[in-house]
Amino acid sequence: MAYEAPLVHLNAGGDQLEVASGGIINVKTGGKLQNNGVDMDLSAGIATATASTTAELDTLHGVVVGTASASKAAVLDANKDLDALALRSRVLGAGNNYKIARGVHVQVAQSDTIVSGLTTVVAVVISFRDAPTAKQQYAHASIGDQAGTPAAGSFLLKTLKSTLAVADDFTDNLGFNWIAVGT
Length: 183
Hints:
The chain is built from one helix and 13 strands.
């Protein structure tokens, strides 16, 4: 009869437990495994260390809950929120070097030119800050050609009456929120 080596055995020096392919270590209830003297959590059926290394703790040293720290980590607060995170002035989903500008404007004429602070505007979104009235029921914005009307970096804000005619009474002093994307 041929001798078959056990799948789980102590190595020749007696200082390591070796598990060959197909071998299993089954830790019974009350038993535990340790890694460098630290108990391993076996409750989920996966051995994971319950203590961090010094290097891991140094990586997070100085990071305040709810913030991001350069070259370290983003640490969420108890509500899983992050207070601020700089994305190198990029608009996600847009090309490099695009920026976002935003503001609030109260319309005073049939077509107001709003200067965004950007060099050029490639897209703009507006919404009513105040409740629409019959005098100013609908609103829209236009980036134009960015070479004449409106000037580069600006956009036009226009409103219509409930009859779809161009608004001509701005005494309700309605405010509009705007977000512009550009360079």
